[in-house]
Design goal:
The strands form 2 sheets. The protein has a two-stranded antiparallel sheet. The chain has 4 helices and 4 strands; from the N terminus they run ββαααββα. α2 (37-43) crosses α3. By secondary structure, the chain is α+β, with helices and mostly antiparallel strands. The model has no long low-confidence stretch (mean pLDDT 92).
Length: 117
């Protein structure tokens, strides 16, 4: 049995859709590094179609697109995280960290109630 751990998952909902959450944050982080939706999908072990769908969902949910997509071709495509995308990611990361910090005292008390290894 492994040691218990707290894993807080913050999701921003818009109706039944997840406008932003841990998976989309990871997608944006990867896009900032790779500049390629195809490479990001591969690194995240998901299909390109799934990565594209997540990107389109994010773009629809916010006032402006978080990701700009360029089609492939001779020079290849390219994907850029917009300035708003960078801001959304930073705010989300701050919110997730604050949520985990706020949960820590309760987690320490609850952890003592778990079955010992």
């Amino acid at each position: 049995m492994t040691s218990p751990a707290l894993k807080v998952r913050v999701r921003i909902m818009s109706g039944d859709d997840i406008a932003f959450g841990p998976g989309k944050a990871q997608l944006l982080e990867s896009l900032l590094t790779t500049g390629s939706l195809n490479r990001t999908a591969s690194e995240m072990k998901m299909s390109y179609v799934k990565a594209l769908a997540l990107t389109k969902t994010m773009n629809v949910q916010f006032s402006e697109p978080l990701v700009e997509l360029a089609r492939g071709g001779r020079q290849g495509g390219g994907t850029q995280v917009t300035e708003l995308g960078r801001k959304v990611l930073a705010e989300y990361q701050a919110m997730a960290a604050a949520t985990e910090k706020a949960a820590r005292p309760s987690w320490q008390r609850l952890r003592k109630m778990l079955r010992a290894e």
